Amino acid sequence: MRQLYALHQNIEKLVVQLINLYQSGRIEQAHDGFKEVEVKSEEFLNLLTRFEGKLTYAL
Predict the structure, then answer these.
(1) Cα angle for residues 55, 51, 47 (degrees, 5° grid)
(2) Do residues 55 and 22 lie in contact, with contact meaning Cβ atoms separated by under 8 Å?
(3) Which tens digit of pLDDT belongs to each residue from 1-43?
(4) Helices 2-23, 27-58: inter-axial angle, 10-degree rounding
(5) Confidence bin at 58 (pLDDT 50/70/90)
(6) How far apart are CA 39 and CA 31, in angstroms?
């Protein structure tokens, strides 16, 4: 769970940075940053899948 929480915080921080870039007119950089959000989101989903498997196994 700590890993999920840490990754969630990381994604949130990255999104705030992208919003700031966008609002300051650096739109292309903000759009480019969404690639990193996608990578982090995949990591998040992979962690959720692992935890789901562990919970299913434990039941």
Answers:
(1) 170
(2) no
(3) 899 999 999 999 999 999 999 999 999 999 999 999 999 999 9
(4) 170
(5) low
(6) 14
